[in-house]
Amino acid sequence: MPNRLLKEGIVDSSALNELTPEEEVFFYRLLVVSDDYGRMDARLPILKSRCFPLKENLKLEKIDNYLQSLVRHGLAICYQVENKPYLQILKWEQRVRSKEKYPSADCGQLTDICQTYVSVGKGMGMGMGASKAISFNAENNCFENIDDIQKQLWKEAYPAINLDIELSKAIVWLKANPTKKKSNYNKFLSGWFSRCQDAGGTKVSIKSQEKVSFI
Fold first, then answer.
1. Can you tell me the distance from the alpha carbon of 31 to that of 89, in angstroms, rounded to the nearest whole number?
2. Predicted TM-score of the model (pTM)
């Protein structure tokens, strides 16, 4: 991994100030071992071996607690792709030098705070339960199971879009194309937002024709 740069803003960061000293050390070590996009394998044994290779007595439960705290304070998110857990450091400002090593959250589903796995022989023990997949309710004209963490992720990834307007436009498109149902609405919406971002963002003169709501 390349060397990481720490910005002087870390000394007066409100989010980092809320962490315990141990959690803050974990965050800085994650900065070092994550790929160029701020992503990392979120299985607890992997995090322990990469972040704390010399601390043999450190319990996996401690790693789990550190990670959950980072998510609660808006410093990271956890998600699954093909039943494998990953994490993403938010507000990642490092220079990209290499190809993606881990899949992005756009390819999977966010979890409730974080879902981690502990390898036990050939099996896997599951931590916290996964959140429900995003779905589209055509009768009520709304997307369901979009939580605040997911919305914050989109806002961070696509700063030029107006999230409410683009969600309304996506609903209008889905209503106009009822035969084009999607198997992964997270991926569908992320693609929608990405195209809007690349086109210059949401045009403020465009008004949504249907009301968007979250359940």
1. 8
2. 0.53
